Structure formats: structure tokens, C-alpha cells
Amino acid sequence: MSEVKVSNKLAAAACLSAVSYIAISVHLDGAAHAQSSTLPAVTVEAPTARPAAARPSANRQATRAARRAQPARTNVAAPATPAPTSRVERADGPVDGYIATLSATGSKTSTPLRELPQTVNVITADQIRDQGAQSVSQALRYTSGVLAETYGAASQFDSYTQIRGFTADYFLDGLRLPNGGTTTGWSSAVMEPFALERIEVLKGPASVLYGQAVPGGLINMVSKRPTDTPIGEIQLQTGSFDRKQVGIDIGGPVDKDKQFLYRLVALGREANTQVDFIENNRGYIAPSFTWRPDLGTSLTVLGSYQKEWGGKTGFNYVPTSGTLLPNPNGRIPYSRYLGEPTFDTLDRQQGAIGYLFEHRFNNVFTFKQNLRYFESDADLKALNRVGELQADNRSLNRAAFGIDAGTKAWTLDNNLEARFQTGAFTHTMLFGVDYRDEDSRYNVGRNTAVPPINVFAPVYGIAIPNPGTTNFQLSNAQEQQLGVYLQDQIKVDRWVATIGGRWDNATSTSFTSTALATTNLKQDQDAFTGRVGLNYLFDNGMTPYASYSTSFRPVAGANFAGVAYKPTTGEQVEVGVKYQPVGQNTMITLSLFDITQQNRLVQDPANITSFIQIGEARVRGVEVESRTELTKGLNLIASYSHLNHEVTKSTVPAEIGRKLSQTPNDQAALWTFYDIQGGPLWGMGFGGGFRYVGTTTDLTNARITPSYALFDAAVKFDFGKLISPQFKGAVLSINGFNLFDKYYMTECQLNQGCTLGFGRSVLATMSYRW
Fold it and tell me: pTM of this prediction?
């Protein structure tokens, strides 16, 4: 569809939203002044009065200020304990420490985590900082049931992260991010963790609120937003592989009445990686602005632009001989690059602009409208390995690829929230309408006339013909989705019931041309998805729960053979218990689940630029995650997951009973960090972590990737406490990853080779906050 048609559809949707909002506003403003007799059968009451002046970051700044406002140290005695401060947490705002108590991801309303009938794990900005995560994938390393970095250290994409055995969908501020045409991922969004306030993982189907989604779950990232208290941070970073990075984060009120707020997050980086010739250069800027004309209304405009340049990437795979299997010439090192530096390129850029609007009519009704336009482009030239090593155990055949990928997407979500009571029942009801329009391209050229390379003594500088981007596979797809959803969270006594339903209409037009087939497709599908859940809140903080939910995701386009993709559907039954003991900073979640998905997408082993559907898959498992502050300053994260997974139906009988590709049976992680609270080392912090990923298999179950265990460590120096209050705000952090330089593979596929993991690296970050 042309850009004009897209704009027209967006304008129509926006007009519809505006008209709906005006009508609601007129009606509800009038209703706010009407007598209660207008609702004779229902008694409408506000269940709780919302603090009118609560702001996303004011309390966080107050907490920081209280921590820093210590007396000047004249000896080594422990500092005076600051007066306790209350913490007002917002579901879309910052969190002090590692433990969040509220989330909007699981319900699109501000809901305590223990009242949600599904598992939601929250990775806070403080955790990201302490662990030194440099990508969203790295930030997810210690989360139960999540397998990140599936394509190894050479990958420069966040895509393909697994949740409960299924590739996750990504969202930013509650709006879906494009993944480059459903299957390819080359023009998918890549987010900068320095710009995020929190990362939330919703486990299980979420179509009832978000439309297109896989049954394993989704990842929702929350942007840093303007604050009504002045903040500032400058960050300098260096480390392994000649890393040089500078970041800035500033914000606060523009006027004395705090009606206008701003924030600016920016970052610049030049860095190499552990793989020779592959760089990791990035420029990022994200300005935002908030207007609050009154206490019940806010409009936040969010913009971002990111560019990566001068980089190189491959298809990450190296031969199994010399990695998974022995080779008489030795082991292929982490740093080995099998491309051609004078040929390979990766230039990628993305930008977004949108807004978050909220108007609270009264203590009952709140209207929200979120909108974003996102655009990304990726231009790539790279050499890909072909088959395994030749008979000499050294020479590897290669093919040249050129890829031109891009995505443009409009996303709009409107909802009206109502909080009221009917007798003994307290309701939080949500009615919403959302719309998405995504246009993507994925054009590939290939040239097999490329000389082989000696993987143990590579020689570079060979001229490689340009394969272009039009002679191997052409894919263009446009997808539109319109959804209407309704949810009610009902409380009575200690019971919380969550009931929701959604209707979706998804249409797509696509053109796919490969060496085998050319297809023009138009697909139009409707689906109903839902969720029912029940929680019981014990006074001691124990909350058992159970839920049933379904998912629906249309897939535009066709596979390499020209066969149109079918929509994927799924369902999950989950039971568990959440424990948040009264008076303690602890959240423990234990869950058991059973997920079934139809028409599962997997990479085509014969054509790695395409995908196939294998039938039905089933995943049953157990997860446990504990986040707790054991004592003042000592935080602990512990997680474990076990999955029992298999292909249960397929048109190819040999596939039935096979394990799912790249899906470990077991994962475990442990992280702890301690900020010393007094004495001569007050201001110093240290910690470490352990990560274990069990064995995985390829699509055919013929290749087994061994398990691996990795160790990380961190140390922090707060100079304002350790040396003198004159240095308040200056903090040096040092992080070490894979301390013992464990050699491991993240994935091995038959006829494709293996992807190598991350070797040992060190990162030093100097930050100054005010």
C-alpha cells in the first residue's frame, strides 16, 4: 500500500479516536456533575483515591537525595541512618533497587504484580546498571524461562529471544515494535538499554490485550520519561575491544509551576567486538517533552533516532569441526572472522516519534491514547559459510549475500479505564481499540562464486562481486490489524478475578519471489482471543493463582517454496503462587504451565533466509524466580526453569516427538550484589552472578549443543561516600563477564554450523549524577 494510503488510514483512525474522545469527554464531564440517580442499578464509587500530585520520578529523586544526604565523614564509623522515606511507585516509572511491585504490562492498568494471573518479571534500571548490560538481550540473562543471545556474540540484533520456548514479541511503552516483516528480523528494532527505565517480561499468551502475539510471552520496555525533579547524569565507558562510549541523561521542569517537563537521553559509541573486523558503533538521541495543563491531564511526546555505521556482520555461523567437533588443526577461536573486510558492511538506522496522552476525568474514568510511528532501514553485505569444511579440515566454502530490509509502522492504542464498585465487587474495567499498519521489505541477492577461506589461517583482501539485492529472494508485505478488547479486574474480599476478551481483524498483502516460486497473496483473518484468571490474596503475602489464555498471530507472506504461511495460534494453562511477605522487600513467583502452539515458525534448514511451519508444538514447564533484599543493601536474584517440549503434530511423520530447536530443558541463574552500609568501606559495592543454560538441539535433533555455565562479577565505588562528600554523585563501576573465559556455543544446526558465545570481557563505567 502506498504511503498516501497508509497516511489516509492513520488519519481516519486518528479522527475516529478524536471523535470518540470528544464524545466521551462531553458525556463524562457532564456525568461527573450529574446526580447519582443517573445510575439507579449501580453504586459507583472510587475504590481508592489516587494521589493527585504523584509524579513518576519525584520520589526516586527524594530517595536518592536521602541516601546522599549523609554527614561528612571524619572517621571510619558507620554513617547515621537516614530517616526512612516512603516510596511511591508507578507502574510505568522507575524503581529503586531490583524489586518492582506494580506493572502495567500484564493488564494495561496499574496493577500489583501479585494480583496478575500470569507471571510478569521486571528488570529494573538499577539491575541493568549493576550488571553492566549493554543490550536488551544481556539485560535478560538472569530472568527465568528466557533464553537471550540465541545467535551468539556476533549477532547485533535483539530478535529471537525465547520465552518458554517461543520467540518473543517486543513492545516499547505498550506499543508493538515491528520485527521486519514477521519472520526476517533484519529491520527489527534494536533498543538502547541506557534509555530504558525498566524491561518487563509477560509470560504466556497476551493477545487479549496486544493482538498479534506468540504464546510464550512478550517483552515490554519502558522509556525514560520527563521528570518534575531536575536530574542529570554523564557517563563515560571503556573496556575490552577498544570500547569508547559517552552517554548523557538530563531532565526536569522547564517552568516553576512544573507544567512543562523535558528529558534528553543521548549516547555515542565506537567499539570493536570479540570478532575481528566486526564493530559496534552507535549514535543515539531521545528527546521527550511533557505538558501537564492540570493534575488530571498529561501529554508526553517521545522521539528517538539511532544510527549504526561502519559495522560488519556475518551470518554468525562457523563450522562444527573445530567448535562442536574436534579438528586436527585445533579449535576455531572466538575472534575468527570468516567474511571479507573489504566487502562486508552493515549500516542500520531507526527512528520513532509518538506520544502518550492521559486524561483523568474523575476518580472513576481515565482515558489514554498512545501513538507511535517507527521506521527502520538495514543495508547489509556479508559472506555466509556454505556447508562444512572441505576434506583438508581447513577450507570453508562461502557465498556472498546482499540484503536490503526496511520497515515502516504506525501503531495506535486507545483505552478507557473505569474504576467503580457494584455492591461488594470492586471493578477495574478497560475498554480499548487499537490499530497497527506495518509495511516491510526484505530483498536478498546471492552470489556463490566466492573463493573459500582457510579458517585457521585466513587471508583477506579478495575481490568479491557485488550480489545486489534482487536475484535470490524478494519479499514485500503490508499488514494491518484492528483490535477491540474488553477487560474487567474484579475484586471481592480476597479474591481477584481477571476476565478479558478481544476481537481482531488482520489483513495482509504480500509479494514473495524466490528461485523456486513467485507468489502474490492477500490474507484476511478474524480471531477471538481471551483470558480468564483467578487470584486469592492471603494476608501473609501468599497469592495462589490460575489462568487460561489464548494467542493469535497472522503471518504474512510465503516460505521459500511459495507456500503461504498460516496464522499461528496458541493456548496456555498456568497455575502458580506469588509470595510478597508483608514488611519485606521480596517477590517470589513459582509457576507451572502447559502451552500448545499450532503452525510454529522455524528457520528453514535448506534456506536460512526463509522460514517454514512445522505443525504443532507443546511446552510444559515449571519456573521459579526470587527477588529479595536479604538485608539492607544486599540484593539477590535467583531463577530456575525446566521445560518439557516436543513437536506433537506435523505433516512430516519423522518430526513428531522431536525436541524444539534451540530450546534448553533447564536454565538457572543466581545474582547477588551488596552495597556496604558502613565502616571504612562505606560506598563500595560488589557482587557476582552465575548463569547456566542446558543442552539444546537443532531442528532435526541430530546436533546437540552442549550446556554451559558462566560467571560474572561487579564492583562499584561511590566516591561521595568512600572519599568525601565533595565527590557526591561520582561512581565507578567495573564489570567482568564470563570470568573464566569459558568456550561455548549458543546454537549448532545440521548443515549450518555453530554460533559462538561471548568470551571474557571487562567493562569500566564512570558516571556522575546530580
Answer: 0.86
